[in-house]
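Protocol step 4 of 6.
Sequence for PadR family transcriptional regulator (Paenibacillus barcinonensis) entered exactly as in the expression construct, tag removed. Do not edit the line below.
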Amino acid sequence: MNILSYGLLGLLTREESSGYDLMLKIQPHWQAKHSQIYPLLSKMENNELLASRWVQQSDKPDKKMYAVTDKGIQKLLEWMITPVTAPVTRDEFNLRILCVGIAEDGSMRRILNERKSWFMERIRYFEDLKSRIPQDNLRVGSREFGSYILVQKGLMNAQTGLEWCNWVTQLLDGQAAIQDPTPSISEI
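Step 5 output, structure tokens:
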């Protein structure tokens, strides 16, 4: 089992879903394509971690709905107690920022503006996701609580990224002094 498999199991503890629905639900947290998800679902079904049923649709092709089994829940609970690995950062933007010393100012501003636009779109995206979570599920212990706090994390990360882009723009414009804008760990 890989990490994506566990994420799919976790989503299926909330509600029965099709492979396509699972792909949409996992996207805010983990980049995955159809070509990754469907083989995992098949493998987990063969290992009796999932059960499935076909749903007939009149205007679309029939769809396969998946549900987690007791064996799948047990496997998920076993994974939940294992140590979490360190996050992986792979961002082309960061690599380009490393090279700004050789770029002309216009290049730096262009990639900053592109990233600002991306962060603004992410903010809208996470605000939309947040608005779709029923208010009565915004409590500790609800099945949607994990989604809520992760959506909030995504929103806060995007807002912080936008603030960082604005700070760098102020540096480029000479409107901010080059100093560390963040508190030290002892100040937090």
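Step 6, annotate. The two ends are 38 Å apart (CA to CA).
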